[in-house]
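Please annotate the following for my students:
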Amino acid sequence: MLTQETQFDQTRNLVVAKPGADHLTGQSMAELTDALGERMRYDNATLFVIDMSGVTFMDSAGIGALVTFLQDLEHVRGRIGVAGCQPNVEFLFKVTRLDAAITLFDDVEEATDEWL
């Protein structure tokens, strides 16, 4: 169960999640990816976008939780993207080279236009 307020919006097989917290830790990202995994299993979602526009910090354990979810997505040939990253969060994706596996979008609109 999510301890932080997160908004979810699903259109067909695309889920957009907007975390309510400005800091994402390993724990909060694990809770978020667990909730996304439930949508994958029960709602046939295969495309996921995390709206990071309000997130100013994410720790390395948060990256680990995303990598674990990315591995789960391989089983359904799913994809994950992040939208609206603040510069320091975007830097984390690039320095870890996770931007090669997770699509970075400028905003949610760009993600939905491309994936729907």
